Amino acid sequence: MPDSGELSCLLCGMRAVGEVLSESVRDDRTGRHQVMRCNVCGHIQLFPLPDEEADRSFYDGDRQARNLIPDFDFEVWRLKCQEDTGRRLGWLEQVRPAPARVLDIGSGYGFFVDAAASAGYEAAGLDLSAERVALARANLRGEFLCGLVDETFVEGRRGRFDAVTLFHVLEHVPEPVAFLNRCKALLNPGGRLLIEVPNAADALLWECTPYRDFYWQRAHLSYFDSARLELALRRAGCGTVKVEGVQRYGLRNLLNWVDSGRPQLEAPADKAPSPLLAEIDALYRRYREQTSRSDTLIVEMPL
Ligand SMILES: [Zn+2]
């Protein structure tokens, strides 16, 4: 297998030589997909990309969660997402207080939309997975739509929203710059775009081989670090932005990976911490965020 090859970069648009970072991804052992880094702009991406039809059936079948957790349970997942949901709602409330119209793109099971609707927002979610949308409609508050942010979707809703949120979505889309442009078109003149992505400069990713083998996955087409996220936003005409780090996973997760080399899926990583551990955990998270080596990046635009 070669350690370099030619790729079409999702970010800079160049046909370039790419360095192969991984010859396979965890949930596609056919060896069809590799992970490559563009030698022109440094962007990391899946190569070759799946075609649109393969992607649709992947999400329709709800495979991203199922590949990881075969006996998936809606209520257990809701609890697992509680910390993220609360943090994201707090961020939205700071940027754009209710009442306001918010669209969550890639709404998944819809927990954020439900929380926003309960906090006084006119909240809608859009997701490609018919199964996730059906579950959200049956169980949660807010409006849930199934589909893509294509030209037809944008035309019907141009300038309609005060805020558009993209939580762990940008890494899934085949044309991130064009996608960001369509998201911008959904905003009204004072509207804000809130983006959260995994950080490709995550310390654990580069310092723990089992984690790295687990990290590369079929669903992620792009892996952004803060420079590449800024580049995507600049190319989409978003001007100057300030990318910030967020450390979602705590010290217990780090220790688990270092000690066992496996994901901690059974026991919640955040189970009732002792005050002693909570103090160290907070320091650990802050350190990762301040050194830009956190597991997650967030950015809002315009500033
Ligand atoms: Zn590139």
Summarize the structure.
The protein is α/β, with parallel strands linked by helices. The chain has helices spanning 52-60, 63-68, 74-80, 82-95, 111-118, 130-139, 151-157, 176-185, 203-207, 209-215, 226-235, 251-260, 275-290, and strands at 4-8, 15-22, 34-38, 44-47, 101-105, 122-127, 143-146, 161-167, 187-198, 222-223, 244-246, 296-301.
Describe the protein's architecture and organization.
- There is one protein chain.
- With 303 residues, the chain is α/β, with parallel strands linked by helices.
- The protein has two domains: 49 residues, no CATH class; 249 residues, Rossmann fold.
- It has 13 helices and twelve strands.
- It has a seven-stranded mixed sheet. A five-stranded antiparallel sheet has the order 1-2-3-4-10, with no helix packed on it.
- A hairpin with a 6-residue loop joins strand 1 and strand 2.
- The longest helix has 16 residues.
- 38% of the residues are buried.
- It binds zinc ion (ZN).
- Zinc ion binds next to loops.
